[in-house]
Amino acid sequence: MSEDVRVFISTGEVSGDLQGALLIEALYRQARSLGLELEILALGGDRMAAAGAKLLGNTSAIGSMGILESLPFVVPTLQVQRQAKQHLKQNPPDLVILIDYMGPNLAFCEYLPKQFPAVPVVYYITPQEWVWGDRWGWGVKLFRSDRIIHATRRILAIFPEEARYLQRKGGKVTWVGHPLIDRMQNAPSREAARAALGILPDHVAIALLPASRQQEIKYLLPAICQAAQLIQAKLPKVHFWVPLALEKYRQPIEQAIQDYGLQATILTDQNIETANGASPTLQAIAAADLAITKSGTVNLEIALLNIPQVVLYKVHPITAGILDRLLKFSIPFMSPPNLVVMKPIVPEFLQHHATPENVAQESLELLLNPVRRQTILADYQNMREALGEPGVCDRAAQEILGLLPHVRR
Fold this sequence. Notes:
alpha/beta; Rossmann fold; 2 domains; globular
């Protein structure tokens, strides 16, 4: 006879929804082997719902990066958290998993130990204090890792340096590897992806990945499209492929494609037949000769598929000014491939450096200079070795379910 276990997962934004879905699938696999019947409640998105979670609130579009940028999402975030807390009071969890989603999940780190002191809390994919913690003076106190360490029974790290940093701080940490290693097992080959998209051998395919957050439509989409326009003027046989992160971004992206006269196609689940069940994002990346992309988790997907990339990011000028002048905030790199090995594997442009001219020039260099291209591919190989072996999500699920008192390890 199976035993019922109620699990609550909290995450947000498109990337958290992806990581949550991968973990949920693994939790169900491991639960079956242990004779457990899971009920998974979640703050997350459509991918997590499809993987078997009951959503208490949809947070895939509630998220931002920056100070001013976060203000429109304060009230919606508080509302979904309130809904979740009310439900959990009536239906107490046996396990809690917090995934990324720094601000809201740090609030849960304060709430959960008080409300459910006996319930194991796991933090999976922690805020990147290991990157910026020693570089941000007094401001880091707002987000200190000791809040996570105090609230959690276990921290599951995805980067080796993340694990080392949190262990030094006194956290109970297990390094499981990066979950995208698992996702890449189902990625289509270059040949299959290009065949599915009808890309001719002599045509240049560039994946454009401008936005998974609303603010990125405003700050990144114009620069990326202007860079694409400059590239198109140099390479007549180029075609741009734009996987859609959220349906609500379709209209502004379509308008930008029209305004800049781009030879471009928007990809969704509805308008392509995906290879091996891969998402439109993986399809577009796998088929590409180059990716021009926002900074984020997608940079690792691109690297793991051996596609050269140019990364850019912008926030509101006032946010940038506050971080730079008032909080003295600085980071060595912003894109995950560079952070993994702490060296500039991929070119990245931040704020006023993220100009269409800079992005286009670097993109053309990666497309037309074989030596430059080969260097980035060799660096990808070194980066890949620091991300762990396949089976990441199942290792994480085993660690999580092993915290239940009646589960023998």
